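Anyone have tokens for Phage integrase family protein? Sequence:
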Amino acid sequence: MKQAKTLTAQELRRVLDHIATRKHCARNRAMLLITHYAGLRVAEMASLRFADVVDAEGAIKNEIMLRPEQAKGGDARTVFISEKLKKELSAYIKIYTPNDPQEKLFYSQKKSSDGFNANTATQFFHYLYQRAAIPGASSHSGRRSFITNLAAKGVGVRVIMGLSGHRQLSSVQHYIDCNDDQKRKAVELI
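Reply: yep, here.
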């Protein structure tokens, strides 16, 4: 099975530049970056309710508590929100705050919809990456990029396992992409 492409910083910038020219750019930017900066699976991202991410005072939480029904394998986990992601989510909620905090965090244009679901979010990312001319990228690219970037920065595999919700080392290793630039930098450490 072919793995989703891990995006370089330039490719991520290209997708963000594309998003900036489209409708719903604040929402689309937040959806993209929550996968890249928090490593959420698309189904986890699509399941988020406004109250999962925003506290009663209207501030972005430091942590998102994924309930068992939101996480793969039915295992609840804590998702830590970086300051960079907090800024992105804050910008998004300035333009979108639902009347009911139990509504989905990421709205859909369809009036009768309860926001994105896993399938519509997967399609969204497919077409987003296609339109931004990033071949090989898919709905899983953000998660793979998140895990690979942590590994490239020397974050320990056990920490990565905790952040990604993986319970097996082999699962994390499957996600980590290795490229020639990383290999060049590695040999220079000797």
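The chain has a mean pLDDT of 88.
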